[in-house]
């Protein structure tokens, strides 16, 4: 039996009349992508790939990536996206986590291990394992089911109503669920995706000039585009955003830049299948500044610290119940069980219900930093910095930032005699991790900020930054 996303992608490519384009790479016709999928599936079969075996796939927002995904799914395997520019340490970490022996890059297969990993029952109906940052500092493998994601895409099709006349500009990486569903939805609806391998104002301007009618991005992308107040996007009929909070002033600027476009602000997590809440065009007058109301099939509750339902208007943790969520965390049944209560997923976001039943975020109970839509665990950065021979201790935290939503600040305690500079640390980190995880600012101190008990206090990082800024004056 062909898996749901393999059917969705095959049917879409067989019906498609236009190539999948890229702002940096050559376009690929639907037949090109079907042929890539066929070759990949045949090569995996020759490697005796097992049903539900995890297979890494290099993703660079190239049209050929879609053919590679199709081949993996048609072979009965599970795709584990790995960005082409991922740091060697990241690659090694994910390979250890999956135990995969095969890697797909376009239509080429590379052996990266000697034997397949042990069978995992959790992967039996899985399409993807998407790794996200965890509060422990270690990445979590979120297992996404074929049918669940296909069903969610059908929901989003009814909500957003892409059509065959649309060109969908996708600067979102296909290594993340937002980029993945936007691209698959575009193909399902008969629209033409235009992939952007690397975000830049020039790349998006090029894509817009080619006649894009739909643009999907995170708020930080729109901030960069609209830094020039005269920038306009007159050809758009729809703008999608998500991944981080959309401030009301930015939403209004987006509407001014694209006056004929319907704005959809979408909230959701990889674990919940994405897009659990929406502020749509009909709710713009009162909904901006909230995450709106639930999408089809989703319910929620606001839970107090004691696990009880919060009083009307009261704050608590936002918990989501959805039939489209993850199958579980890879090799971590304990974390999977801890993440749910009575069928609701604990998002870690603090929220309350406001006027009209709209949900408003008021903070986060977890330390995850949302930098330009990228979710980053500060502990992961702490641990990496602590490996530097000149660093005694490090503590990172998110600090509000007008452009990125949050930026990362690191407090560093240097080793005696070490001559550290921010630039040297930045260069050292770029050799070991992705650019978006490198702190935006480094602060050197004799000790880490501490709380009342004497333990390092991550919240103290923000207080320290405030003191430094106050000392510098206006």
Descriptive account of the structure:
By secondary structure, the chain is an alpha/beta fold. The protein has 2 domains: 4-353, ANL, N-terminal domain (Rossmann fold); 369-472, 2-Layer Sandwich (GMP Synthetase, Chain A, domain 3), CATH 3.30.300. 31% of the residues lie in helices and 26% in strands. Helix 8 links the parallel strand 10 and strand 11. The chain is globular, with a radius of gyration of 22 Å. The model has no long low-confidence stretch (mean pLDDT 91).
Helix fraction, binned, reads: 25-40%
CATH architecture of the largest domain: 3-Layer(aba) Sandwich
Report how far apart the termini are. 66 Å
> What integer value in Å does the Rg equal?
22 Å
β-strand number: 25
CATH hierarchy class name of the largest domain? Alpha Beta
Provide the number of structural domains: 2
Widest sheet: strand order?
Answer: 1-9-8-10-11-12-13-14
- How confident overall, as mean pLDDT? 91
Provide the CATH topology of the largest domain: Rossmann fold
Alpha-beta content class: alpha/beta
- Indicate the low-confidence ranges by residue numbers: none
Indicate the proportion of strand residues: 25-35%
Tell me briefly what this model is.
The model has no long low-confidence stretch (mean pLDDT 91). Helix content is 31%, strand content 26%. It is built from 14 helices and 25 strands.
């Amino acid at each position: 039996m062909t898996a749901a996303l393999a059917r969705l992608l095959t049917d879409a490519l067989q019906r498609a009349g236009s190539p999948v384009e890229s702002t940096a790479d050559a376009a690929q016709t639907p037949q090109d992508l079907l042929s890539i999928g066929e070759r990949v599936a045949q090569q995996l079969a020759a490697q005796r790939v097992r049903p539900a075996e995890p297979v890494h796939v290099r993703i660079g927002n190239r049209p050929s990536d879609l053919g590679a995904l199709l081949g993996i799914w048609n072979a009965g395997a599970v795709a584990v996206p790995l960005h082409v520019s991922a740091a060697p340490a990241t690659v090694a970490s994910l390979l250890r986590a999956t135990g995969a022996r095969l890697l797909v890059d376009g239509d080429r297969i590379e052996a990266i291990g000697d034997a397949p990993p042990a069978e995992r029952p959790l992967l039996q109906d899985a399409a993807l394992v998407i790794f996200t940052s965890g509060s422990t500092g270690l990445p979590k493998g979120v297992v996404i089911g074929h049918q669940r994601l296909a069903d969610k895409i059908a929901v989003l099709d009814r909500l957003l109503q892409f059509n065959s006349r649309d060109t969908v500009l996708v600067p979102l990486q296909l290594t993340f669920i937002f980029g993945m569903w936007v691209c698959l939805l575009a193909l399902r609806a008969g629209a033409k995706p235009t992939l952007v391998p690397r975000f830049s104002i020039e790349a998006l301007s090029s894509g817009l000039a080619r006649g894009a009618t739909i643009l999907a991005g995170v708020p930080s992308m729109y901030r960069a585009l609209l830094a020039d107040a005269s920038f306009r996007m007159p050809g758009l009929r729809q703008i999608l955003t998500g991944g981080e909070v959309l401030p009301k002033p930015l939403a209004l600027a987006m509407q001014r830049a694209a006056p004929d476009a319907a704005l959809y602000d979408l909230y959701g997590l990889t674990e919940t299948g994405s897009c659990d809440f929406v502020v749509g065009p009909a709710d713009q007058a009162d909904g901006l500044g909230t995450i709106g109301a639930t999408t089809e099939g989703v319910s929620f509750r606001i839970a107090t610290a004691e696990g009880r339902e919060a009083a009307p208007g009261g704050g608590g943790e936002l918990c989501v119940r959805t039939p489209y969520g993850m199958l579980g965390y890879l090799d971590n049944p304990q974390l999977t069980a801890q993440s749910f209560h009575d069928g609701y997923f604990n998002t870690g976001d603090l929220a309350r219900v406001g006027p009209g039943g709209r949900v408003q975020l008021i903070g986060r109970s977890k330390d995850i930093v949302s930098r330009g839509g990228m979710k980053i665990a500060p502990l992961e950065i702490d641990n990496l910095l602590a490996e530097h021979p000149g660093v005694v201790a490090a503590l990172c935290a998110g600090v509000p930032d007008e452009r990125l939503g949050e930026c990362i600040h690191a407090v560093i305690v240097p080793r005696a005699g070490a001559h550290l500079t921010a630039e040297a640390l930045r260069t050292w980190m770029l050799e070991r991790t992705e650019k978006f995880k490198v702190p935006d600012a480094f602060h050197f101190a004799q000790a880490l900020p501490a709380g009342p008990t004497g333990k390092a206090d991550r919240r103290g990082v923000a207080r320290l930054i405030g003191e430094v800024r106050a000392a510098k004056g206006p």
